[in-house]
Amino acid sequence: MSTEEFQYSHLSAQVFTSEIMARSGQDITSCYQCKRCAAGCPVAEQTDMVTPNRLIRMVILGDIEQALTNQLTWKCLFCHTCGTRCPNNIKTGRVADTLKKMALDAGLDPQNPEYKNFHKAFFNHSLRWGKINEIGMMGEYELRNIWDTMKKRKVRKIISHMKARSQFAWEMFRQKRLHLSFHSSKGRDEISRLYKKSAGRKWI
Amino acid sequence: MDLAYYPGCSLYQSAKLYNHQTNLVFERLGLHLQELDDWSCCGATSAGKINDFMAIALPARNLGIAEATNLPELVIPCAACYSRTKVAQKQLQDNPLLQNEINLELSRQTFGNIKVSSILEVLWREINGERFESIPLTKIEGLKAACYYGCMYTRFPYDVEVADNVENPQAMETVLKAIGVPTLDWNHKTLCCGASSVVYNTEAALDLMAKIMKDALARGANCLVVTCPMCQMNMESQQEKYCRKHGIKERMPVYFITELLGLAFGISREEIHPGGNLPPNGLEWSKMCGDSV
Ligand code: SF4
Ligand code: SF4
Q1: B32-35 and B2-5 as β-strands: parallel, antiparallel, unpaired?
Q2: How distant is the Cα of A134 from the closest Cα of chain B, in angstroms?
């Protein structure tokens, strides 16, 4: 939540709005606050009243701190209900995604670091092996979580987390969903060359 | 007829069953699936959360491999892989510079010369074909199916052509009707199940799944039918949890559409779902599958 009261500045609102529009590819200035997006958003009940239309307004007003830290930005499921219903074809899910990327680039600790850890683990695993091996990927995810919690010296939290996780893994194993075979792709060289090319690009 | 086939990582792991069933069912339909040689992960939703360039480059590699087969169509059963690949193809088409840049690193390049199809687009077309007509159908009794599509079959993060009605898709209903399984109208057929957020935002995801389950039950459904491995995994493997959390007493099986097609085509229960348990709602297989089992 915001610590200082938000002060509107025309210039920073404009700069912020243009950057979000360029990175997300969405013409958010055409939003006329009809709230069709709000009515369909599946997480809107859990976001402290930040509905997709409000997120758009936050960006346009240049309330950078709120835009990067509010609950919708971090809880958005990228389900695209907002986008298919918007009369102006604004895909707010992509705006939320862009805001998350900006926050991570700026080194802001997200409210839910597990979000970041999951996608990083998944992405790294796909770059390293060319294919996802669920056990390995989830292992990296857990290590990242433990590391984050350790930095905050919350040992109890690690223990309860590990308990919940091992139950989850056992459940998956029992349902024959965990497999021990290992897969990779020979195209890893091509993939790592492409990855090098992507360095430093903020948007495409 | 041969079709290029991209199974994706989950069909080799947690949704192995879906891969197995898809191959069996397509074979019966006279469609030979030619798995892409040395395919790699499409990046799913995660790549786009971290690196926009790679979110396009990863599926581009697979598209290149698919185009090198010279086949006209690439089938992708996993909804996430389908969405990623289809979107990447359109983004490359709209951005020739980017296409060029990515192609420079690929041994098999992509120029947009292949149609990317979901499993439903193919099945929908096939049930009107001669091959389907000639298959003797085994009646499946006792099911009332709620077809659950989830997000990725009709809603995309980029403007692409959508194969069905966005809010009220009909492909699964049409296919199930053709094999004589009754379906019902309901509200939440395209509501999000929470997808991978079940791992990092569990409670919120469970609430969404319970919403879906409750609506299906209220309409009188006794099973869910899906095509997305993530939806199947969530709705089935988390069923105890979300039902207990929301005081739901009933349980129901969550079938891949291929399971019901397989049974209708006369494939035995053991062959279509090796080691599968009895459906949790107590329906008996012998009653459901007539004399084929
Ligand atoms: S549906 Fe579109 S125009 Fe309406 S409030 Fe939402 S973003 Fe704005
Ligand atoms: S994409 Fe995000 S903001 Fe849009 S409806 Fe889905 S959860 Fe809500």
Answers
A1: parallel
A2: 7
* Number of independent structural domains in chain B: 2
Contact, B54 vs B79, CB < 8 A?
no
Range of the domain at B141: 137-292
Q: A119-149 b/e with 16+ CB inside 10 Å = b?
A: bbbbbbbbbbbbbbbbbebbebbbebbbebb
pLDDT in the model for residue B285: 37
Q: How far apart are CA A60 and CA B152, in angstroms?
A: 29
CATH assignment of the domain containing B65? 1.20.1050.140
Q: Is residue B254 part of a domain?
A: yes
Global pTM exceeds 0.80: yes
Pocket of ligand 1 (CB under 6 A): A 31-37, 52-53, 56, 86-88, 90, 92
Tracing tokens 């390995």 back to the chain, one arrives at: A136
B145 with B186: CB under 8 angstroms?
A: no
Per-residue pLDDT band for A67 (boundaries 50, 70, 90) equals very high
Q: Are residues B146 and B263 located together in one domain of the fold?
A: yes
Could you say which of A120, A134, A177 has the minimum Cβ distance to residue B50?
Answer: A120
* Angstrom distance (rounded) from CA B262 to CA A10: 62
User: What residues 74-133 of chain A have any CB closer than 8 A to a CB of chain B?
Assistant: 75, 77-81, 83-84, 89, 91, 93-94, 97, 100-101, 104, 112, 114-115, 117-120, 122-123, 126-127, 130-133
Give φ, ψ of B80 to 5 degrees.
-70, -45
Same-domain check for residues B114 and B151: no
Q: Are residues B270 and B220 in the same domain?
A: yes
**Contacts (Cβ under 8 Å, ≥6 apart) of B111:** B67, B99
pLDDT, tens digit, 9 for 90 and up, residues B15-66: 889 999 999 999 999 999 999 999 999 988 888 888 899 999 999 999 999 9
**CB of B143 closer than 8 Å to CB of B137:** no
CB B242 within 8 A of CB B210: yes
Ligand 2 centroid from CA B46, angstroms:
16
Please report whether residue B161 resides in a domain.
yes
| Terminal-residue alpha carbon distance, chain B | 29
Residue B208 lies in a domain: yes
Q: Within 10 Å of residue B269's Cβ, how many Cβ atoms?
A: 18
- Cα–Cα distance, A197 to A103 (Å, whole number): 23
CATH of the domain at B145: 3.40.50.11810
Same domain, B115 and B229: no
